[in-house]
Amino acid sequence: MKSIVPIVLHSERLILRPPVPEDAEAIESFISDRRVAEMTALIPHPYPKGSCIHWVHLSEQQWIEGKKASFVICLRDSGELVGAISIFNDSDRHNEVGYWIGVPHWGQGYATEAFRRVIRYAFEDLDFPVIVTYHFIHNPASGRVMQKAGLLYLGTTPLGASRGDQCFDEVRYGIAAGQWRTNLATI
């Protein structure tokens, strides 16, 4: 695998770029919404006011260390921030993708478009051999995003995922680089 270095990615409607301090307020306004936070494993609720700047700086450090690629998802036409997506290597779970979209932008296909672009980056630029990720069972919309992005259903682990002290069934999806390339040839 190649090193993760800061990069800007483009898709038809989106720009995915590393977060900058000026993004903190917009990010915080979205992730402070319980509906966004409760679908993720790591975003606390209530979100501590003013803490998002820490995440921006942490993301910058993770880029520098080559550990994690975190992008803000922005509309290509206006530059408006609508969400975030990250790809990282979790030694227990291979290469994972995590994402969220702000509630006003749900249902517009931005998560799927961003996910597809990050998968392409992972396989073409980083030479990742496989991507495996999951969603909580109570978030089937995330599963639809994963399916539309080309991932394959791998199984469900009862109480396999947690958020704080709560455990939930974990629904896993994944795809190997070779299968992804085969799928592209059939589109």
From TrEMBL:
List keywords of the entry alphabetically: Acyltransferase, Transferase
Under PROSITE patterns, the record lists:
GNAT (PS51186)
InterPro entries reported in the protein's UniProt record:
Acyl_CoA_acyltransferase, GNAT_dom, N-acetyltransferase
Q: This chain belongs to which protein, by name? A: GNAT family N-acetyltransferase
| Family affiliation | Belongs to the acetyltransferase family. RimJ subfamily.
Q: Where is the N-acetyltransferase domain?
A: 14-178
GO MF annotations, alphabetized: acyltransferase activity, transferring groups other than amino-acyl groups
Origin species: Luteolibacter luteus
